[in-house]
Every structure is written in structure tokens, then in C-alpha cells.
Design goal:
- 63% of the residues lie in helices and 4% in strands.
- The chain is mainly alpha-helical.
- It has a two-stranded antiparallel sheet.
- It starts with a strand and ends with a helix.
């Protein structure tokens, strides 16, 4: 007997708490907008030479201007809600915050000593690649090819820059995206049984029988009463002229 997959680990409806987490995440970025970069930004000199490693985490909360904030905040809040809803508190905010610090540490290690790094875009790219990787692994209602095409299309549309700007840290973007893939694979391996246990498989024959019953019920609602063989044909209400017309 053949079966059809009808639900997966990603079929769960969005919970109210996920929207709350998204709103709180957006509020935190707004709260730090306009803060003094000298107090919270990260540079190679301040972090590695003076030992202020906490700056690798606070730098993600700062943004250069309103355009920079608006571009990152939309994706950050949306992905925060998605990751919280489907993968829980330990993925966002815990894992995402840790990943953000690692991304910033790896980025400033390649920069000159006094070049400052601000912005949450590295974390956004990590969150996006984490989600897309798990989507490809989990959403088996679609073929592997279809899932890969969707993941690549979303990456090109939303993550690949239309224009290159010298002040943008594409290194942070790349490190964030690359870090999201292996961590998603680890999460999948650790939670494999739980993820597969959420799948619902329905026998194809049963599904076809249900559809056939629905069709028969619809047909019976339009079926006319059979005529008696020897009796006269039933007449509708109204005059003979109306029937002939």
C-alpha cells in the first residue's frame, strides 16, 4: 500500500508567542538605534588587543542610519518569529545570538585594527541559511529538486545584493550564511526522531475512497426522483402553457 505525506514538522501553525518574540526583537533594534558607536561597536583593536569581546555581540544591535536599520529589521523580526515558532527558544534567541558574536569575531579578524563593525545583517544571513537548510531537509511533501530550487530562488531574491557598496560588510554576510548551514545540519541530526515523528502519512487508497465518497454525495444531492414505469410523468407547478414554453 502506498502512502502520501500530508504534514511535516513545518506544518505547525504560527503561535502567538512567535509574533511576540518578533516584536521584541524589533523593539531591541529600535532601542539601540542612535546609540553611541564608540561604546558598543566592535573593532579588531578593541576586541582582540584590549579584550573587550562583549563588543562582538553589542555591535549587532547598532546601525549606521535609518535605511540600514529598516533593511535589516524587517528580515530580522520575521526570521526571529519563524525560528522561534518551529525550532524553539534555543535556536532563537540563544543560538542566533551566539552565532552573531562568532560571525563578528571572524569578520573583524580580517579587517584593519580600527575599522568598526555594526549591524545585524550577519545574524540575518545566519538565520536565513539555517531556515532554508532545514526547509530542504524537512519539507518532504515536495521533491528534493523543488525544495532546492525554492531555497536557491529565495537566496538570490532576498540575500544576494543588487548593488555592491564599499561600506557594507559582505564578509559578515558570507560568514553568517556559511555558519547557518552546518549548524542547521547539527540541529537536524540531534532532533531527527522528533522531526520525523511529526510527519503524518495517509494511505493513498483511503484518500481516494474519501474523495470518491465526497463525489457520490455531491452527485446524490442533484439526483432526481425516478419516474414510475406505468404512471404519468410528474408535473411541475404552474400552467400547461408554461411547461410547453
Amino acid at each position: 500500500m502506498e502512502y502520501r505525506l500530508t504534514k511535516t514538522f513545518l506544518s505547525k501553525k504560527p503561535a502567538y508567542k512567535s509574533f511576540v518574540i518578533g516584536a521584541i526583537s524589533l523593539g531591541v533594534l529600535m532601542l539601540f538605534f542612535g546609540a553611541d558607536p564608540e561604546k558598543f561597536s566592535a573593532t579588531k583593536r578593541l576586541v582582540f588587543e584590549q579584550g573587550e569581546y562583549w563588543r562582538a555581540f553589542t555591535a549587532a544591535l547598532l546601525h549606521a542610519d535609518l535605511t540600514h536599520l529598516a533593511h535589516n529589521a524587517f528580515f530580522f523580526a520575521g526570521l526571529a518569529a519563524l525560528l522561534t515558532n518551529y525550532f524553539g527558544f534555543w535556536v532563537f534567541p540563544v543560538l542566533s545570538i551566539i552565532a552573531g558574536g562568532l560571525i563578528n569575531l571572524g569578520t573583524i579578524a580580517f579587517y584593519p585594527p580600527d575599522v568598526s563593525l555594526v549591524g545585524v545583517s550577519g545574524v540575518v544571513y545566519f538565520m536565513a541559511s539555517f531556515w532554508l537548510t532545514l526547509y530542504v531537509l524537512i519539507e518532504r511533501r515536495q521533491t528534493v529538486t523543488t525544495r532546492l530550487v525554492h531555497a536557491v530562488a529565495v537566496s538570490l531574491i532576498f540575500l544576494f545584493p543588487e548593488t555592491f557598496q564599499p561600506q557594507t560588510s559582505y564578509l559578515a554576510h558570507g560568514l553568517g550564511f556559511l555558519l547557518g548551514v552546518p549548524l542547521a545540519l547539527i540541529y537536524f541530526a540531534l532532533n531527527f526522531k522528533k522531526i520525523r515523528a511529526a510527519e503524518v502519512w495517509v494511505p493513498i487508497e483511503k484518500h481516494l475512497d474519501e474523495m470518491e465518497n465526497i463525489i457520490l454525495l455531491e452527485e446524490s444531492s442533484y439526483r432526481q426522483v425516478p419516474l414510475e414505469e406505468d404512471g404519468p410523468a410528474p408535473r411541475a407547478s404552474g400552467c400547461v402553457q408554461c411547461q410547453q414554453h
